[in-house]
Amino acid sequence: xxxxxxxxxxxxxxxxxxxxxxxxxxxxxxxxxxxxxxxxxxxxxxxxxxxxxxxxxxxxxxxxxxxxxxxxxxxxxxxxxxxxxxxxxxxxxxxxxxxxxxxxxxxxxxxxxxxxxxxxxxxxxxxxxxxxxxxxxxxxxxxxxxxxxxxxxxxxxxxxxxxxxxxxxxxxxxxxxxxxxxxxxxxxxxxxxxxxxxxxxxxxxxxx
Length: 208
Description:
Order of helices and strands: HHHHHHH
Shape: globular
Number of helices: 7
Mean pLDDT: 88
Structural class: mainly alpha
Helix content: 55-70%
Distance between the termini: 23 Å
Number of strands: 0
Radius of gyration: 18 Å
Strand content: under 5%
């Protein structure tokens, strides 16, 4: 059995951690007294006098660090190819890390809106990965829906902002599970002859 490479380990963790880290406080929040999961944002759990408040400070840190490592793992596969995926992942990671370091209400919570880089990660991945039409379509769909959510949140037109944020979190962070799986599947091993794109074809010359 081959020992996993560093990039494989970085991608394996991001199949689980980004989504799992925030799902735990989200699920606990449904039973938190005096809190509405339908009308309040997840970060407002930080303000409660409840054990979930401490968890909601740690969970974004774990999520952000995991996304940062995902970007590094993608970049290590092919640095010339995944530059923008790695850079935008770092920006999104900064958004989540700051959300754990500073509570909601502070301008540093989210680093003055750096979360608007969220749709760029799947969009850049779609442009850079060269994995085929089906993967590209999934990534672009996630990018567009993520942007639509950010607009809805910014406009103040969302009557159920808590519910829509939770659905957006599953979509946005679930994408890292999907992308990590596709990368591990497409570039398994170190032998270029065994590599395949997600659609089963050999990768283009830039991937060799």
